[in-house]
Amino acid sequence: MLILGIESSCDECCAAVIEDGRHIRSNGIRSSAAIHEKYGGVVPEIASREHLLAVVPVIEEALNAAQCQLSDVEAIAVTAGPGLIGSLLVGVSAAKALAAASGKALVPVHHLAGHVAANYLAHPELKPPFLALLCSGAHSHIIHVKTYTEYCILARTRDDAAGEAFDKIAREIGLGYPGGPKIDRVSKTGQPDALDLPRTHFKDSLDFSFSGLKTAVLNKVHQAEQQARREGRQREDILSTADIAASFQEAVCRVLIDHLGQIAEQCEEKQIVLAGGVSANSRLRELAGQLCKEKKLELYLPPIELCTDNAAMIGAQGYYEYLAGTRADLRLNPRSQWELGTALLS
């Protein structure tokens, strides 16, 4: 069964053709990240305008690369939320138009469920139930994936998401956008214990909080800058960018993996999945590997190219949503906020 997936929740406009939820026939991406880089982050209006230019060509490219036509696909799966509403509207409108013209089923997909499903494409043996650590620019969740379409959020951030914090710190220390991969690269030459940084843990839950950590890093950077000005030196001579990046990255990743390990013990799940853009972070992947080796758990990591937003993951999840009977009609409207595990119209 072929599913056409469409993803446009942020600054990537993507289309893919997926076979039986597990095999990538094509996976096209048109990103506007280079435009947003000069602004230090995604500008929603620019993103949506770029999607308008890209959505038809990228769908045509996906169908051509898969050597199929729209008549060959069984359903059209589209990200319906969460995300930037202007960007979502472009993808959903395109999907509705294709569904109306072809008579194909229209399947709304939750963006975070799609990130989890990226692992199905890389690991044919992976089946629920399992625990997923999902970290992106807007979310930091530990999720109990009960079935292909049933989820329970066991922990989440109470303020900044990990990816958002990476972007803000990267911008502050002059690395620019996108922050995650740049901090990961620079941190390889830094000392992860160079800065004494807080790691927030709550007494009553295993939720995350990264706002205090972010503030602590910014304070240390500003103090180093003030000292450098007083002494007529450069901040880099007092506190190197590499040390800041490495210390910050270590603090974020340690908390994420520590909480994941505690929840794994409580749930007694033996399969661990990483998902979302931050799952590409080399230190996070390394620590996850150490955790799973120590606790004798099976670890599943998405390929780097499937960590960030893509339509292949939407097509994969769309396949399982289609089998579960998930459908939408032409009244489908995207949602900028949508709790994973709840109905779209709830």
Quick overview of this protein structure:
The protein is an alpha/beta fold and 346 residues long.
Describe the structure.
The protein has 346 residues and is of the alpha/beta class. Helix content is 45%, strand content 18%. The protein has a 5-stranded mixed sheet, sandwiched between helices. Helix 5 (162-172) packs antiparallel against helix 9 (241-267). The longest helix is centred in the last third of the chain and has 27 residues, at 241-267. The radius of gyration is 21 Å and the shape is globular.
Number of strands: 10
Intertermini distance: 29 Å
Q: What structural class is derived from the secondary structure elements? A: alpha/beta
Strand fraction = 15-25%
Q: Give the strand order of the largest sheet, numbering strands 1, 2, ... along the chain.
A: 3-2-1-4-5
- The average pLDDT score comes to 96
- Taken from the alpha-carbon principal axes, the silhouette is globular
Q: How many helical elements? A: 11
Radius of gyration: 21 Å
- Which stretches are low in confidence, meaning pLDDT under 50 for 5 or more residues running? none
Helix and strand run = EEEHHEHEHEEEHHHHHEHEH
